[in-house]
Amino acid sequence: MIKFRQDYYSQNYSIISKIFYYEHCNIIKCQHCGFKKYNYNVLYSIEFPLEKIREYLQKCNPYGFYEITLNDCFKFNERPEVLEGSNQIHCIGCNEDTNALIYNKIYTSPELLIIVINRGIETEFGIQFSFPFEISLDKYIIDKTKGTNYELICVLNHHGSNGSGGHFVSYCKSPIDNIWYFHDDAKIVKCPNVFQTEQFSFGFPYILFYQRKAII
């Protein structure tokens, strides 16, 4: 990990990477000897496909569920998949062709976490989705030294059936007065009382922005 970080940031370090980038880890574990191979990457956002997450939750709970939560999305992101048959790996630990588990983890978290909510082709397609004002990612991050607690600071909404059309509006929390404001092109309106529940009443989110809370 240290070598990967040194090689990457020696050529790609900037104020943007410092604030937005996080380190992602893909892990392949041999089911015969337990040897693990780690593949690292640097990303600036995490995307959750709600349609696939819904299918996954329905398999886990065939009796149904009421809504998808942000924690469900993070659990889905690190779900293990089995590599078997023609997808077997050659393990350098036991020098055998074996079945393996492959799964994802967030290695380090960014200062500003960008979460993209992919609704799929159909607008909302009947899915209920909720997200909190504060969230702990302690269970999903390997390196916790910089902190794993986040607070919501902005919600971008997209109205329309796909990303190529429609209209975008946003709700942003001011760092000056800690009040939420509604932004619609040139229109900016103070909305201190709009956030009353975790389930927003003003539409389906497209992008969520969470800022890491300072460690006290």
Protein model, in words:
The protein is an alpha+beta fold and 216 residues long. It has a single domain, classed as Alpha-Beta Complex (Cathepsin B, Chain A). 17% of the residues lie in helices and 41% in strands. The chain is built from 4 helices and 16 strands. Strands 3, 9, 11, 12, 13, 14, 15 and 16 form an 8-stranded mixed beta sheet that branches. The protein has a 4-stranded antiparallel beta sheet with strand order 2-1-8-5, with no helix packed on it. The radius of gyration is 20 Å and the shape is globular. The chain starts with a helix and ends with a strand.
Number of helices: 4
| CATH H-level superfamily | Cysteine proteinases
Q: Distance between the terminal alpha carbons, to the nearest Å? A: 28 Å
Please indicate the count of domains.
1
- Secondary-structure-derived class: alpha+beta
CATH architecture: Alpha-Beta Complex
Spatial extent as radius of gyration: 20 Å
* β-strand number: 16
String of helices and strands: HHEEEHEHEEEEEEEEEEEE
Mean of pLDDT: 83
Shape: globular
Largest sheet properties: 8 strands, mixed
CATH topology: Cathepsin B, Chain A
CATH class annotation: Alpha Beta
The residue ranges in which pLDDT falls below 50 over 5 or more consecutive positions are: 196-201
Indicate the percent of residues in helices: 10-25%
Report the portion of residues in β strands.
Answer: 35-45%
Strand-helix topology:
Layout lengths: L1 H11 L2 H6 L1 E9 L5 E8 L2 E4 H11 L7 E2 H8 L3 E3 L5 E3 L4 E3 L1 E9 L3 E7 L10 E2 L3 E3 L12 E11 L7 E7 L6 E5 L2 E4 L14 E8 L4
Parallel strand pairs: 3-9, 4-10
Antiparallel strand pairs: 1-2, 1-8, 5-8, 6-7, 9-16, 11-12, 12-13, 12-16, 13-14, 14-15
